[in-house]
Amino acid sequence: MEKIKKIMIADDDPGIVDAVSMMLEFEGYDVASTMNGSLLLGMTSDLPDLLLLDIWMSGEDGRDICKQLKDNRVTRGIPVILVSASTDLRKSAEEAGANDFLEKPFEMNDLLGKIDRLLNGKMTAG
């Protein structure tokens, strides 16, 4: 039996966290969330299979967090999708080591496609 994939959402907007969590749980994912991005840097066990990380969180830059995660051998392999309401951050998201970038507001199908591609290596339309 296939293990349920765990997705961690790091975003300081409770509305987004709630909506995305509900939708991902409906899709069969195990979802955890935090509004404190720096907590991610202390992860050593029970690591998520994928991280959905907001670039602008109060007092924190998701790109810095992503860079540190990718520099850490424990968390390096976790795919990271950086999310932002600003389109001009795509390049800096890639430079921070993000596996993908998603612009807010986003369609849930776009998010699901990116998650599926990163977790299962599937190429989906869109």
UniProtKB/TrEMBL annotation:
<protein>
    <submittedName>
        <fullName>Response regulator</fullName>
    </submittedName>
</protein>
<feature type="domain" description="Response regulatory">
    <location>
        <begin position="6"/>
        <end position="119"/>
    </location>
</feature>
<dbReference type="InterPro" id="IPR001789">
    <property type="entry name" value="Sig_transdc_resp-reg_receiver"/>
</dbReference>
<feature type="modified residue" description="4-aspartylphosphate">
    <location>
        <position position="54"/>
    </location>
</feature>
<dbReference type="GO" id="GO:0000160">
    <property type="term" value="P:phosphorelay signal transduction system"/>
</dbReference>
<dbReference type="InterPro" id="IPR050595">
    <property type="entry name" value="Bact_response_regulator"/>
</dbReference>
<dbReference type="InterPro" id="IPR011006">
    <property type="entry name" value="CheY-like_superfamily"/>
</dbReference>
<keyword id="KW-0597">Phosphoprotein</keyword>
<dbReference type="Pfam" id="PF00072">
    <property type="entry name" value="Response_reg"/>
</dbReference>
